[in-house]
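Please check the following.

. . .
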Amino acid sequence: MPEDAPTAEQSPTYSDLPPIEHKIRRRRSRQRAILEWVAILVVAVSVSFLMRTYVVQTFFIPSGSMEPTLQIGDRIIVSKLSLDFGSIHRGDILVFKAPPAEHCGEVVTDLVKRVIGLPGDVLTSRGNTIFINGKPLKETWSHYEPLSTPITRTVVPPNQYFMMGDNHPNSCDSRMWGTVPRSDIIGRAFLRIWPLSRIGWL
């Protein structure tokens, strides 16, 4: 090693710098830290936006139309990708844009109901029994009766769905405002996250 080459002990340290250069380096360090935090926040917000737009979204339950399955104040997570890569089945709980002809006294943007009729199904009701294509529907999920408002004979159009709330006598649904087009469906509810005492899969 040449005699005039600086060793680790001879190299100037941060504290050995002149006061002006010391301030400059401290300012640059602060600026770099701020830029790093800004970049982290931008990435976090972007990821959150993309997740909410294309993957999952949380929703608040404002009414009792889905009781006893979902109660007022519950919060649920809705999967959007499940509709892009999967099929809609009878019994699924979906969140969708509120129909423009909804006249049930609630001013809401989105609704949550259960799929009862699929495209091509013929629905009717007699008493508290729902008939699909002439056969009684076996409601394997919790629900309240009586049916109250009957289902007039309905043929579900292509790419549309007949939706009902589990609280049959207290639900404004496809019995009143008709079927829901697939293009209005936001996603499938799959998890209740609030209240903590009722966390569970749907």
